[in-house]
Amino acid sequence: MSRAPSIRQRGRPRGRRRAAPLAALALASGLLSACGGDSGPPELTWYINPDSGGQDAVAEKCSTDDYTISTQVLPQDAGQQRIQLARRLAAGDTEIDLMSIDPPFTAEFAEAGYLADIPDDLQQKFSEQAFESAAAAATWKDELVVAPFWSNTQVLWYRKSFVDQTDLDMSQPVTWQQIIEAAEANGGKIGVQANKYEGYSVWINALVTGAGGQIAEETEKGVDAKITIDSEAGRAAAEVIQTLAESEAAPANISVSNEGTAGTTFGSDDGAFLVNWTYIWGNYGDDRLGDDIGYARYPRTVEGEESRPPYGGIGIGVSSSSKHQDIAMQALECLTSPESQAINAEITGNMPSSPAGYDQPAVQELFPAELLALFQESLEAAAPRTPTPYWSDISGAIQATWHPPSTVDQETPKESAQYIEDVLQGRSLL
């Protein structure tokens, strides 16, 4: 069972709760950091996810005469980032001041008390500045607990030469059923993320929310959350996956496909459609496919229901164990400003979490104007993964019951709902 005995929560409690999965990491942790020196301006340490230098550049920009910001790089894998941070925070490590957090773990860290409370005025500023999806992903129990930094979304990429063989009008919304039928009828393949990993849960979440549903509700109840994947929306999501998996439009490697392999499928002679993140333009739009690459809104799960594209990104939080919380909050305001978001985007391609960030001249030069508009439209409509301290358990249970895609049918949502509940209640192990 992935859920562990309760530990005393750090920071201000956010309501009565049962211990979240991060509690288990406290029991395994023996890490305590030494105190830093007291001479000179304070040095804030920002734990960052790996990138190509954007966060370092932002840290340098936001360092002042009153404090400096240094960075420490977390592991490449998001799950390992979570574990490393959680172990240190559970041990009360005072050397972590700021940290870049993947959206699925935001509620988990907040519920465990690892995040310092953001003052009300900054909560309002960060919320009003961000895209609605970015603010939602940064919120737990009606409080903004991290500041949105960069945001990512998926769009539907397509080969213009392939679409010309079909009767699809890509200027209008298209459904998954339509692109599957078009690809199958014309010998094309559709790139998706369907390996047994987090990317598959991202796809399933987008399909469910795109049909008007949710994977779980009332998540503030922790392990007693209402699991709602067994619904018409869940069955609509299962139908999309089943239809693709059983069609000739499915790549041979669909059960092990991730962002990289899906991109390779798209770039092959059989490439037709691809759902993937914004970086695909840099990989294929400027050189390999040139004018043959097109882009459109994420496909609809069901006819007549607006799609809910996936949401990804990074929020920055202040550690509740930091000795410098006040100045870390000052730094947080600078680190997540539209100007800083633009610096990060220009260097890494990780796009801003705010419309004002998109308005920065450096960002305007990164992509064609129509594509920038599509990214922003998609972010406005994007659906973050269900905010819950138990997302790791929920996601693991989904992957276990929906994988491989070839086994998905109309019973899958019911089976997964039962398994999620069993895992949360400690009746089953992941």
From TrEMBL:
Membrane-spanning intervals of the chain: none
Alphabetical list of InterPro entries matching this protein: SBP
PROSITE patterns reported for this sequence: PROKAR_LIPOPROTEIN
Leader peptide range in chain numbering: 1-34
Keyword Signal part of the UniProt annotation: yes
Stored Pfam families: SBP_bac_1
UniProt keyword annotations, A-Z: Signal, Transport
Family: Belongs to the bacterial solute-binding protein 1 family.
UniProt protein name: Extracellular solute-binding protein
Organism annotation: Nocardioides pinisoli
